[in-house]
Every structure is written in C-alpha cells, then in structure tokens.
Amino acid sequence: MELSLYDTQSRSEKIVTSKNSEVITIYCCGPTVYRDAHIGNLRTFLLTDLVVRALHVLGKKTLVVQNITDVGHMTDDFEEDKLLAQGKSESRSARDVARDYEGRFHRDLAHLNISPADHYPRASESIDLMFAHIQKLIDLGHAYVGTDNTVYFSAKSFPTYGAISGNTLEKLKPGHRYDYVDDGAKQFHADWALWKSSPNRNEMVWNSPWGTGFPGWHIECSAMSLKFLEGHVDLHIGGIDLRFPHHENERAQSNPIVNGEAVSQWLHGEHLLFEGRKMSKSAGNVVLVSHLLDKGLDPLALRFCFLENRYRSQMDLSWESITAAHQTLAKWRLLAASTQPTARDSIQALNQEVREIVNEIVSAFCDDLDTPRAMQILRSAVKSSLADNLKSSLLNAIEPLFGLALTRAIDVKEPSSEILQLLEERRAARAAKDFNLSDALRKRLDELGITIHDGPEGQRWEWKI
RNA sequence: GGUGGAAUGGCCGAGAGGCGAGGCUCGGGACUGCAAAUCCCGCUACACGGGUUCAAAUCCCGUUUCCACCUCCA
User: Fold this and answer.
1) pLDDT in the model for residue A312
2) Omega into A159 within 30° of 0, i.e. cis?
3) Mapping DSSP to helix (H, G, I), strand (E, B) and coil, where does residue A281 land?
4) Which residues pair with A450 in a beta bridge?
5) Which end of chain A is more exposed for a tag (fewer CB within 10 A), N or C?
6) Window A209-228, strand B contacts by Cβ < 7 Å
7) Which residues in 253-282 of chain A line strand B, with CB less than 7 A from it?
8) Residue A259: which pLDDT band, with cuts at 50, 70 and 90?
9) Cβ partners under 8 Å of residue A178, min gap 6
C-alpha cells in the first residue's frame, strides 16, 4: 500500500514519494509565537502528524521540519506588529514572548499526541540563511532593491506565478480589497518584500547587506525548508489560508534557487470553525487546549473529533461534539483495559480477523487520509460480536496510526473520604431496601460528581464527565 | 471582480449510477425498586430547474445560496 494525498498544485491525488533518497522530506508551516496556538492551528499540525504516522506504518522514513516564526511576518508599524505589540502589552521583550509561547506550543502538541518534528528551526536563528537566499535571488535577476531600500521579489520574473492558487498576475488586481497605494518603491503591485528596510526601529531588527531591517514573511520558509531538507521538499503542509500569498510566494522564491520545482507536493488543511463561525478574537470563539483541560475534557477527545472529519473539509466543532468524543474515548479505554490483548507487538501475530480490520483501516488512511472511514471501521468493529480480547488487540494494533491513547490506563481521581462514606451508606441503604435514602444519597453523590450504576453485582460508581 | 471549495434528516456527517453508512439528540420498549449504563425499535433526507438513463444524492447543463482566500491568518 502507498499513501496517496491531494496535491493543491496539480489538483489531483499523488502518491507520496521521495525524490532524492528513501527519506521523505516534509515541511510544515509552523506557528508565529506571539500567542497560544488555538485548536484550529492544531488541526493543521495534526495533519502533519497523521501523514507521518501513516508513512511510518507503511515502513517509510521521514524527515520533518517545522519552522518557528519568532521574527518575520512583521510590519513596519509597531502597533500592528504582533510580536512587538504583544511584548509591549505583556511588558517584556518580544524575544521573551516568543520563547514563552514556543514552549507552550510544544506542550499543546504533546497534549494532542502530535509527534514532534525532527527540527524546529527558529527564524531568528536563520537570518544568515535568508541573506544568502535573497542575495542569490538578486544575482539571478528575480529580486531588486527598491527606492525605499527594501528588497523586493519581482513577481513578473517568475512565469508560473499563480500555479498553486490560481491567482495569476493578470487576475490579481491591485486594490480590490485593500487600499493599494503606489508609493513608487516597488516596480509592480504584486511584488513583495524579501527584506524590509526599517531604519527607525531598534527591536527585532538586523543589519543586512541592504541596511537595517527585518525579513519578509515568506522568505524564512524558502530559506529554512531548502536548508534543513537539503534542497528538496517532498511534501509541504500548511493551512488553506497559506495557499495564497504565502505558498505562492514561497514557491517563486524557492524554485529559482534549485532550478526546478522545490516542492513535489502541496497539502493544505481546511479551516476549523467553532459553533458555525471562524475562530477569531472578535467573534469571541477562540478555543485553546487549556480551555479543554479546564472543563475536564481529555484533549485527545479533540483529536478524536478531528479524525472524524476529513482534513480537506471545513469542519464545525462545538462543545457538544467534544464531549461526545470524550465519552466514546472513555468507553473504548474501558474496553481496552478490561481484557488482555492476544498480541501486542506485531500485526503479523494478530488473529486474521483483526488483521483484516487493521488492513482496512490502513487503506482508509492511504486513501487521502480518509480518517472518517477509518473511524467508522473501528467503531463498527468495537460494536461487533468480536471477542473482547480481540477488540483489545485491535485497539492496540491501530494505536500507532490513531494516536488516541486507547490503551492508556484510565485516569481516576481518588474519591474523598466523604464520598467513600456516602457510597458505603448507600450500599447499606440498598441492602436494607431503604430506597428513599439510597435515592437521596445518589442525588448527593451526583452533586459531588459521582455517577452510580446499580447492577446485579451491586453498586458501581465513576466520575461524571 | 478573481480564485478554491461546499449545499444530505432535529443536529453532525459518509456516500462508489441499483435494497436509505455511521454518530449525537429526541421518542418508544427491554432491563432496573426507581434511575444510570447497556441492548432493541422508531425519526425514510439529498439546495432549485432542466437533461441523460430501465434506474440519479451520485453523471451533464443552467440557477440560487453559503464558506474560504485575494498582501495579518493554521
């Protein structure tokens, strides 16, 4: 089996292969670390994880690089610049802000069981790479120094501009949705800055061959991807909003350097909506991993929700769906914990029936990451008449692919002595057939977060979700 | 205006020309002292108008509406 994924540029599915070696090189656009990543950002980062997990299950090797944008992607206006403005509002340096949120980003990934990339290069530590890259583009005639000392890429110098997004230069009209002011600094309205001259700023600026300033937004990805993936990206991943202009410009900057297509395949993840709207500060519906933790929800319930939707579809999420996933996850973990799997280690050692289900699931992943289908296969297997120990084997076997920690021991808080006493009183009341008292105690325990299950074997309890 | 998508029951969502995926909610039943959990049953949908076909959610033409991107964006 091979992993096939939709490629934005060719608008068709392509099998993921390596161009230069047996290692598949993957670049994923990373976070700008001026705030916490919200769960929409994390959906895109999960996409990379799913690709990598699928490739590993197929026995492929990968090299994954994700940048950390701690500079660049900046504006001249202090108030508008995200890192500088955030530093100001938190009364600390932009650098401190960046390092802090970078750490939090890694914690969020860990909560969602997203396997780490092999390298996380920081833009601030790759400035020299960018200098070299920009200089080459100037030498090749693709870039020029404008009248404002900013270095611009000449869009017209790159004939296939627009191949990814469909926004070719004839179709891009200046000023349609923004106020375009032709100050004469650049030669063509669609040209963009590679190095932004900024003589008046004193924080987050560098001395370059073209004067003091900071890098343009797109150059870091070109420079870092080609450096850390040794000149070729087999698969480039990012959010759909990056398709234009970011990836279009990145392609224009990278291709001339390698004298060919620097990226074999472009993979874009669609956006996540929350309760019907795009997550934004103004809509007040930005959800963070920490919000899930505050509500006592397992962050992997979020991973579960993401898996139930196709990465190429816009997805609408709500607290209701996360809670439902949380409950299903808890049920499956109970099942996995209730019996010993027959075989833990290799797919070959599995019972044939289980092996066939695993194969179906792997092939759903290979079909452009059809995770909803994979989840459905798993769901019906869990509901089927398959013996419990085989179900348990199945949950173990697919763990490397799903990453839902289905076999994780259930995290149980110790009940307080009050709760233990109430439970004992209720047991006694039931034994004495004092149902008024036992019902009152059940209500009281419910208020303390305890759900009671009465069965033939007596009273059981668990923490409410 | 350009570009890329989408429209399926109360809700979320799969769908391959041919018996209506699945999940959640809700209603009914079994079980239970009563509940809960679990199991069983029920809720017969494909934006609109044409067309092709023995047969269309699926293919073709047209229309409408919605979302995203068009120099902050995952």
Assistant:
1) 85
2) no
3) coil
4) A463
5) N
6) 217
7) 269, 271-272, 278-279
8) very high
9) none
Beta strand ranges found along A43-112 (DSSP E): 61-66
Would you list the DSSP string of A420-435? Answer: HHHHHHHHHHHHTT-H
Rounded Cα distance between A193 and A145, Å, is 10
How far is Cα A401 from Cα A58, in angstroms, rounded to an integer?
10
Confidence at A98, pLDDT banded by 50, 70, 90: very high
What was the pLDDT predicted at A80? Answer: 65
Would the ipTM clear 0.85, i.e. be above it? no
Residue A301 CA distance to nucleotide B23 C1' (Å): 14
Q: Within 7 A of a protein CB, which nucleotides of strand B?
A: 1-6, 12-15, 21-25, 32-39, 67-74
- pLDDT for the residue A449: 82
- Interval A27-38: pLDDT, tens: 999 998 988 998
What value does the mean pLDDT take over residues A15-38? 92
Asked whether A465 and A326 are in contact (CB, 8 A), the reply is yes
Nucleotide nearest A180, CA–C1', reads B71
Task: Name the E strands within A179-314.
Answer: 192-197, 206-208, 211-215, 235-239, 266-269, 272-274, 277-278
Per-residue pLDDT of A405-450, as tens digits, reads: 887 766 667 888 999 999 999 999 999 999 999 999 998 998 888 8
**Which residues are paired to A311 by β-bridges?**
none
Average pLDDT, chain A: 86
Phi, psi of A85 (to 5 degrees): -65, -40
CB A228 within 8 A of CB A66: no
The residue ranges of every structural domain in chain A are 4-269, 272-402, 417-463
pLDDT score of A164 more than 80: yes
Task: Give the integer Cα–Cα distance in Å for A334 and A19.
Answer: 44
Give yes or no for residue A79 having a pLDDT over 60.
no
pLDDT higher than threshold 60 for residue A348: no
| Sequence letter at residue A44 | T
Q: Distance between CA A244 and CA A153 in Å, rounded?
A: 16
Which nucleotide is closest to the Cα of A429 by its C1'? B33
pLDDT tens digit string along A113-149?
A: 999 999 999 999 999 999 999 999 999 999 999 988 8
- State the Cα–Cα distance between residues A302 and A319, nearest whole angstrom: 10
Strands (DSSP E) found in A29-142: 61-66
Is A461 in contact with A423 (CB distance < 8 Å)? yes
Residues 177-196 of A with CB under 7 A from strand B: 177-178, 189-190, 192
Within 7 Å: CB of A56 and strand B? no
